[in-house]
Amino acid sequence: MSSVLMLLFAGILARCACSAGDSRLLLVSFDGFRADYLETYKLPHLQEFIEDGVLVKQVMNSFITKTFPNHYTIVTGLYEESHGIVANDMYDADAQKTFSQFNDSDPFWWDEAVPIWATNQQQGKGASAAAMWPGTDVKINDTTPQFFMKYNFSVKFEERVEKVVAWLNSSNPVVTFAVLYWEEPDASGHKYGPDDTQNMRTVLEEVDKRIGFLMSKLKASGLWDTINIIITSDHGMASCSEKKLIILDECIGRNNYTLIDKTPVAAVLPRQNKEDVYNLLKNCNSHMKAYLKEEIPDRFHYSHNKRIQPIILVADEGWTIVQNESLSKLGDHGYDNALPSMHPFLAARGPAFRRGYTHSSINNVDIYPMMCHILGLTPQPHNGTLGNTKCLLADQWCINLPEAIGIVIGAFVILSTFTCIIVISKNRVVPPRPFARLQLQSDDDEPLIG
Ligand SMILES: *[C@@H]1O[C@H](CO)[C@@H](O)[C@H](O)[C@H]1NC(C)=O
Ligand SMILES: *[C@@H]1O[C@H](CO)[C@@H](O)[C@H](O)[C@H]1NC(C)=O
Ligand SMILES: *[C@@H]1O[C@H](CO)[C@@H](O)[C@H](O)[C@H]1NC(C)=O
Ligand SMILES: *[C@@H]1O[C@H](CO)[C@@H](O)[C@H](O)[C@H]1NC(C)=O
Ligand SMILES: *[C@@H]1O[C@H](CO)[C@@H](O)[C@H](O)[C@H]1NC(C)=O
Ligand SMILES: *[C@@H]1O[C@H](CO)[C@@H](O)[C@H](O)[C@H]1NC(C)=O
Ligand SMILES: *[C@@H]1O[C@H](CO)[C@@H](O)[C@H](O)[C@H]1NC(C)=O
Ligand SMILES: [Zn+2]
């Protein structure tokens, strides 16, 4: 009994041995990497990465399922309404400022939250470094990562990797946290649509080669065995079609409203009476829902921010909202975050993570507290739950219901076995005669007749 307990204990201790502390963490995002691409395409480098670490098959991302909002959620653990980057295109009526992916560097937009790269530097655990992750070239909370690149989509992946690995490899200062961003497979997902398996295969194979390149660079620098790496994404992709257009001009005059963000979640700023505009929009198309800001479903966590416009329109999966334009892309995202097509995956490896473990799902707000735990940081207020990622971490005691039942039954079997042995050995006053049992058995064996 005690030896069994000791074994169990030793197991727990062994898992606690590789605890958080002096670790380095690299967070990588491949934009628009839909969760099921992992099952559809052969991606040997990514598979090799996962075999040695953990895989979360689906990450429940945040609404709206767009790039800037979700990248900021990953590094803050906050829903979009709480971190303030509520869309790729925004308008702030009070400040009369406009945000777009081409004009994103005013700190005003980002300062409603403090991202992990700033907290990492402020709490003095080490420097942070960044290669093109949204927001990393902006002075948020009065600071940028100590090392960063100005956003430029023409800069090759290889160049980004070489920079990041060199920064991580420096010892003065020690870079404990780094982020790396790549625009694919999002760009091709929009262009070809996610169902174009021939073109998407080519793109995903390229992405996989890039993961291989990153791995080889980390191995060459000697970082591979000690660094923790998370590979994830912001959102998935759905197929769009010319047959699935929602044309606003057929329902409402353009002078009635300003369209701040277009599709698949349109942000509408009424110019006339809000109720009138809403009434014109709410019955516009059966494949689009119109919400007054006050009526946006709670599960979206998308209403408590002044940058969310008074009316939002949410298209059904695969539908595109236009004023009167024709379809310009075959794939899109931004839709309801409950749709599996909008979900990315997460893979991670390194001393902080378990090995060879697959988990069904987490929320992307849970990634932030997990990263803070690995880096030994006190997190800012956030919407995630560390407990949701416990099973991914090597230093956490992860136990699920079937395992718990198994352990209870196992303990019961062991206990009763020991009790039986003790009872039997105590009752064995007379040493058993050889073959006694055999004889008894043959006595009992009555012939079967008939
Ligand atoms: C970018 O946005 C700022 C406000 O945040 C504005 O003052 C500036 O004119 C914009 N620049 C361009 C080129 O649109
Ligand atoms: C940075 O964030 C902290 C914590 O939220 C806050 O107290 C501080 O005022 C912020 N500083 C700046 C310069 O924004
Ligand atoms: C962006 O990167 C490309 C390729 O390295 C370079 O030629 C170009 O000058 C850069 N653009 C800016 C604005 O820095
Ligand atoms: C990383 O640092 C180690 C030790 O300082 C050094 O031997 C190695 O060459 C460096 N690698 C790269 C790629 O700079
Ligand atoms: C608002 O839209 C309605 C319906 O399309 C139209 O009749 C009306 O003229 C519009 N008003 C303005 C000011 O554009
Ligand atoms: C779209 O609307 C604009 C402005 O009303 C008009 O000039 C243009 O011809 C329309 N285009 C199409 C394809 O209907
Ligand atoms: C998310 O976290 C922020 C910061 O703690 C908090 O203000 C907000 O109420 C939270 N949102 C939800 C839905 O709990
Ligand atoms: Zn995109």
From TrEMBL:
Family matches, as PANTHER family: BIS(5'-ADENOSYL)-TRIPHOSPHATASE ENPP4, ECTONUCLEOTIDE PYROPHOSPHATASE/PHOSPHODIESTERASE
GO biological process: blood coagulation
Segments crossing the lipid bilayer: 404-424
SUPFAM superfamilies assigned to the protein according to its UniProt record, in alphabetical order: Alkaline phosphatase-like
Topology in the lipid bilayer: Single-pass type I membrane protein
Function comment: Hydrolyzes extracellular Ap3A into AMP and ADP, and Ap4A into AMP and ATP. Ap3A and Ap4A are diadenosine polyphosphates thought to induce proliferation of vascular smooth muscle cells. Acts as a procoagulant, mediating platelet aggregation at the site of nascent thrombus via release of ADP from Ap3A and activation of ADP receptors.
Residues of the signal peptide: 1-19
Reaction(s) catalysed (UniProt annotation): P(1),P(3)-bis(5'-adenosyl) triphosphate + H2O = AMP + ADP + 2 H(+)
Protein name listed in UniProt: bis(5'-adenosyl)-triphosphatase
One of the record's GO molecular function terms: metal ion binding
Protein localization: Cell membrane
InterPro entries: Alkaline_phosphatase_core_sf, Phosphodiest/P_Trfase
Assigned keywords, A-Z: Blood coagulation, Cell membrane, Disulfide bond, Glycoprotein, Hemostasis, Hydrolase, Membrane, Metal-binding, Signal, Transmembrane, Transmembrane helix, Zinc
Top-level taxonomy: Eukaryota, Metazoa, Chordata, Craniata, Vertebrata
GO cellular component, one term: plasma membrane
Cofactor(s) essential for the protein: Zn(2+)
EC number: 3.6.1.29
Family: Belongs to the nucleotide pyrophosphatase/phosphodiesterase family.
